[in-house]
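Translate structure to sequence.
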């Protein structure tokens, strides 16, 4: 069975707090629009190492792609903006 979209979004939001410092930095770089190569360079790691981090990030956030990660991140930003 697949989760309801609202449950997936809640898992995404809850998962952000589970990210390690490095994973959060990678997450923030993706959200700011950085490419894979730019992100790896900014963090000081090789792209293969970045793929390892991506797998962990996706698992913690309950997403299967960067596109889905960015979609939920944009929803999160819209929600925060409307609450302020």
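Result:
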């Amino acid at each position: 069975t697949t989760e309801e979209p609202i449950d997936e979004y809640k898992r995404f939001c809850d998962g952000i707090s589970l990210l390690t410092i490095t994973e959060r930095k990678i997450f923030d770089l993706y959200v700011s629009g950085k490419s894979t190569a730019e992100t790896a360079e900014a963090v000081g790691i090789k792209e293969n190492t970045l793929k390892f981090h991506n797998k962990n990030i996706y698992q913690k956030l309950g997403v299967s792609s960067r596109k889905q990660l960015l979609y939920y991140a944009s929803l999160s930003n819209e929600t925060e903006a409307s609450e302020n």
